[in-house]
Amino acid sequence: MLDISDFRDNANVIKADHDKRGLPHDKVNEVIRLDDEWRTAIYEQNLARKKRNDSAKLISDAKKSGNNEEMQKLLADVKSLGNEIDDYDDISNELKEKRDSIRMTIPNLLHESVPVGDDEEGNTLHSEHGQKPDFAFNPRTHNELLEMNNWAELPRAAKITGSRFYFLKGDLARLEMALQSYSVDFMIKKEFTLMHPPAMMNRKAYEGVTDLSDFENVMYGVEPDGYYMIATSEHPLTAMYMDEIIEPSLLPIRMVGVSPCFRREVGAHGQSDKGIWRVHQFTKIEQIIISHPDDSWNYHEQMLENCIELWNSLEIHYRVVNICTGDMGTVASRKYDLEAWLPGPNEFKEIVSCSNCTDYQANRLKMRYRTAEGNSAVHTL
To answer: pLDDT (tens digit, 9 = 90+) per residue, 118-142?
Structure first.
């Protein structure tokens, strides 16, 4: 989430960013109003505390002088002030909870280079790589190839679990493992540390990495424990430093995560989504960087170069697109997508998202690095 100082000092910047996204200012104004009331309540509470401290000294003086009547009056005042302080404590806590609950739903500030657009049609081409394959035959879709080669069991998976689960078989299962190993080896050479994260997270950690009101409907909950199955290894790998102060000498922290990912994938699906394209469980390789704020935009470009180098090595035709304002989620400040050309359905499909989330997740997770002036939020990518 955005730092509260942004609302106090740069509210016009947040509102201008909302204008780019086509969002109203209501929530921003409500955060500012609640913050003003919270600061007033804290100020009044501190005044009451000062009066109580001053009265405590006067009680001591009255006791020494033997003025019992004055002492009893002062004791009554202290009790009344104590109740007043408790009341302000309840008021300030309620105001802060309401303020921060709304603040959690306000999206990150967009990088100035993000193109303006209403939806994915507004995404712009960044670069194109490789040659589109030209076949002397009509290419088959991946689901046709699955069936022809007996590479997956979908009906039997649906029988024991439900639709959009699958058994992967034979050479295709081996290919998936080989691609995972190839990708991990590639990232290790880039000085990333291999990580296998937990497959479940608690609510507090999940609220730190994403807007649950926007994301909760695509995740699986685990009851009665209150856990969530992870939708990507990005979430646990970023949240692992929650509530920590990181020594600057440890930055950047580079991780490559391998994990199963679980998503409901609710909504309508097209013909090209049949087979195992949009499924409820899949394995993903993820690169994560936790960095000093001054370095994050350079690392964002490095992450993109890592993606480009890896996919070029696979000799697959793909393009890189700049995600526009209307297609951007809550968390990222800027995002590139890599979209591979699929000959069967005759269209591009997303294979990579590469995002700089700046300090948005770090503020929610209270992830800081140590500075001479105090502790400041790191950036996450």
So the answer is: 999 999 999 999 999 999 999 999 9
114: nearest Cα among 370, 297, 319: 297
Give the pLDDT of residue 277.
84
Hey, what are 184's tokens? 């991990």
Element (H, E) at 256: strand 253-262
The answer to whether the beta carbons of residues 257 and 230 sit under 8 Å apart is no
| Best CA proximity match to 129, nearest among 312, 346, 349 | 312
- Decide if pLDDT at 39 tops 60: yes
The DSSP annotation for 34-87 comes to HHHHHHHHHHHHHHHHHHHHHHHHHHHHHHHHT-HHHHHHHHHHHHHHHHHHHH
For residue 315, count other CB atoms closer than 10 A to its CB: 10
Q: Could you tell me the pLDDT band of residue 30, with boundaries at 50, 70 and 90? A: very high
User: Which one-letter amino acid corresponds to residue 256?
Assistant: V
Strand 347-356 versus strand 334-342 pairing type: antiparallel
DSSP letter for 228, please. Answer: E
Residues in the chain: 381
Q: Structure tokens of 190?
A: 């880039």
In which element (H, E) is residue 184 found? helix 170-189
Give the model's pLDDT for residue 210: 85
List the alpha helices (DSSP H) in the chain: 4-9, 11-21, 26-65, 68-103, 142-149, 155-160, 170-189, 203-209, 212-215, 234-239, 296-313, 360-365
CA 147, 150, 155, 157 torsion-angle sign: negative
Q: What is the pTM of this model?
A: 0.88
